[in-house]
Amino acid sequence: MALLESEDVKAYYSIRQGYVRAVDGVDLVIEKGITLGLAGESGCGKSTLVNTLMMNVKPPLYFMDGTITLDGKVISEMDRSTLKKNVWGVLVSLVPQSALNALMPTKRIIDFTKDVISHHMAVSDSEVVSMAKKRLEELNLLVEALYMYPHELSGGMKQRAVIAISTLLNPKLLIVDEPTSALDVSTQKQVLKMLMDLRKAGIIESTIFVTHDIAVLRQVADWITIMYAGKVVESGSTSDILYNAKHPYTYRLINAVVTPEPEVRKRGLTSIPGEPPNLLDPPKGCRFHPRCSEAMDVCRSREPPLLETKGSCCCCHLVSSGTREA
């Protein structure tokens, strides 16, 4: 059963020259009980999409069109005050990119905890402390961290504290945006384990894990969705995406990442030529065609259809024309 569904969602940035089509017609389904990995190059629209999926949209970003349904509620029709009261923190929480810098240096961790809980329920300070201690114990974090300031915590501890604060009210969906990008390898492992423990403990139902690092998604994702230039180009199970990628962009993205397989070491790394398009005026047809060595004439004039096969989907004329096996 789907926890979140988006249909033809569009969210554009308004600038002097016009609209930047950062999210341009995205359909997405997040099933209950899974971790979905959202991957793509920097600037492809990943962070904008996840903020839009929870309707955390404010100028210069504008929600242009589409429908977003979360846990049976059409949140794309709610005003910001309703979202703050009934959706954010309760149904969905976001651990933002650069979360290490999200904590105000003059407040202790317990103060952030009080802010989150008191916004949604009337509880005493002692109840807040009790709830916070219980959550830290569940996640094997030091309870003493509650009374520390951000500068007294290591980078990994700050990241885990932000995740703990974000899940205090047991949201059904947790969105984490590049949670391991500023951490060393051993600390990354601790953060990834914590995210998996949240699901195992039933604290959250589903996760959207945003990253440009395919190697990380191999460890945590059940399903992977690939974005390029504001659009979803391919989506499927982790094994399908890693070992049977159909879209040329997905294939090249995977081959640009170091992985432990012997064939990868033998083959070496490859790069994607060119650079992402200007979304003020995106290319006609398939947005990847200026960088694609397999582009056909139709790719330059007509947007590829979404082809669904065995639960996965791909937007590529090579697949729809039968040139590449679906």
Write up what this structure looks like.
This protein is of the alpha/beta class and 326 residues long. It has one domain: 3-Layer(aba) Sandwich (Rossmann fold), CATH 3.40.50. It is 30% helix and 25% strand. The strands form 2 sheets. It has an 8-stranded mixed β-sheet, sandwiched between helices. A 4-stranded antiparallel β-sheet has the order 2-1-4-5. Strand 1 and strand 2 form a beta hairpin. Helix 5 (155-166) runs parallel beside helix 6 (185-200).
Known CATH architecture: 3-Layer(aba) Sandwich
Sheet-strand content, in percent, reads 15-25%
In total, how many beta strands?
Answer: 12
The helix fraction, in percent, is: 25-40%
Structural class based on helices, strands and sheet pairing: alpha/beta
Shape: globular
Mean pLDDT: 91
Helices and strands, in order, run as: EEEHEEHEHHHEHEHEEHHHEEH
Distance between the termini: 25 Å
As for the number of domains, it is: 1
Which secondary structure elements does this structure contain, and how are they paired or packed?
Blueprint: E1 2-15, E2 18-31, E3 35-39, H1 46-53, E4 61-70, E5 73-74, H2 80-86, E6 92-95, H3 109-118, H4 125-138, H5 155-166, E7 173-177, H6 185-200, E8 206-211, H7 214-220, E9 223-228, E10 231-237, H8 238-243, H9 248-255, H10 262-267, E11 306-309, E12 312-315, H11 317-320
Parallel strand pairs: 3-8, 3-9, 6-7, 7-8
Antiparallel strand pairs: 1-2, 1-4, 4-5, 9-10, 10-12, 11-12
Key features of this structure:
326 residues, alpha/beta, Rossmann fold, 4-stranded antiparallel β-sheet, 25% strand, globular
